[in-house]
């Protein structure tokens, strides 16, 4: 009996947590068309040993898919795929995967051209993985380049 109560409690907690996280996604989120498309980027650590690359597809419906690949000494060591939501509010870009994040990552952005956008972290979720990067979350920035 205790096992059944525990299982039901865990299921309800999971459902409520997911509903609460989805509430963080604005119903009327602004999807700036300049961000729509397929974008790529990369960063390398100071010792030139670890390279992280990504390809992100942002759709006009506010959904994204990103594939991140980590290379150690030129050899692929890890590949991850993530899906979530993106939107903008004024000069802030938001990215949020409610399945793994507690809240959205927030970035100031600068449109460099129709094919380049610079992002600078304003606030990163505690689950955002900068472990493979030597970037400080307070100064983390990168440039996405549009390929499609």
What does this structure look like?
By secondary structure, the chain is mostly beta strands. The protein has one domain (2-146): Lipocalin, CATH 2.40.128. The protein is 14% helix and 47% strand. The chain contains 1 helix and 8 strands; from the N terminus they run αββββββββ. The protein has an 8-stranded antiparallel beta barrel with strand order 1-2-3-4-5-6-7-8. The longest helix has 21 residues, at 2-22.
List keywords for this structure.
148 residues; mainly beta; Lipocalin; eight-stranded antiparallel barrel
Can you give me a brief rundown of this structure?
The protein has one helix at residues 2-22; strands at 37-44, 50-58, 63-72, 75-89, 92-96, 105-113, 116-123, 141-146.
Question: What secondary-structure arrangement, pairings included, does this model have?
Answer:
Elements (H helix, E strand, L loop, with lengths): L1 H21 L14 E8 L5 E9 L4 E10 L2 E15 L2 E5 L8 E9 L2 E8 L17 E6 L2
Antiparallel strand pairs: 1-2, 1-8, 2-3, 3-4, 4-5, 5-6, 6-7, 7-8
């Amino acid at each position: 009996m205790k096992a059944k109560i525990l299982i039901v409690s865990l299921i309800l907690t999971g459902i409520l947590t997911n509903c609460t996280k989805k509430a963080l996604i604005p119903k009327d989120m602004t999807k700036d068309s300049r961000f729509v498309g397929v974008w790529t980027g990369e960063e390398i650590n100071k010792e030139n040993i670890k390279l992280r690359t990504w390809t992100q597809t942002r759709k006009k419906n506010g959904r994204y898919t990103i594939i991140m690949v980590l290379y150690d000494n030129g050899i692929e060591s890890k590949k991850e795929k993530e899906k979530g939501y993106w939107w903008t509010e004024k000069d802030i870009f938001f990215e949020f995967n409610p399945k793994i994040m507690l809240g959205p990552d927030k970035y100031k952005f600068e449109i460099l051209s129709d094919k380049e956008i610079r992002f600078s972290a304003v606030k990163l979720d505690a689950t955002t993985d900068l472990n493979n990067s030597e970037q400080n979350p307070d100064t983390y920035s990168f440039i996405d380049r549009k390929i499609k």
